[in-house]
Amino acid sequence: MMLTAQRIQGKLLTQRCTTGWLDWIHGQIWLFPEGLLWARGNLQITIAQSARGPLPDQLTATTDERELAQLAREKGNLWIPSTAIRSASIRRGLTTERLLLTLVDGSRIKLLWPGNERVRKPLEEALASWGITI
Question: How many other CB atoms are there within 10 angstroms of residue 11's CB atom?
């Protein structure tokens, strides 16, 4: 008997996200029921994304546990399970918004995206559903 992997639906929140002011390569923020995935792009993708505006609507994709685990292991990507997040803050700046996560192990992750992207509300809802106050 062959077991099938559980299907997981994720939402693409933005394609124009960096991990800090010195990181010029854009990545994508994907929101999954069990955590966040930041998938690093490359220079060519960054240049193409810079010319575009925000996503028209949040896009969704379905994957399975194995595919998600593979994405999480790819060089440069960040998988942040909800259970690893101790606290979070979201701040709006002049041109960007910032998510700062403090993890259970004491490390911190910063994600920046353009202020005109619709990222904040779904992030706040997900963090609240995971029991994390902002």
Answer: 16
**Fold (CATH) for 9-129:** PH-domain like (2.30.29)
CA of residue 40 relative to chain centroid, distance: 10
Beta carbons within 10 angstroms of residue 70's beta carbon: 12
Among residues 5, 68, 70, 75, the alpha carbon closest in space to that of 35 is found at 68
Phi-psi region of 7 (alpha: psi -120 to 50; beta: other; left: phi over 0): beta
What six digits make up the tokens of 14?
Answer: 């933005």
Which of 2-11, 36-45, 79-88 bottoms out in mean pLDDT, i.e. has the lowest? 2-11
Angle at 89 between CA 124 and CA 50, to 5 degrees: 75
pTM recorded for the entire structure = 0.83
Q: What is the pLDDT of residues 70-113, one digit of tens each?
A: 888 888 899 999 999 999 999 999 999 999 999 999 999 999 99
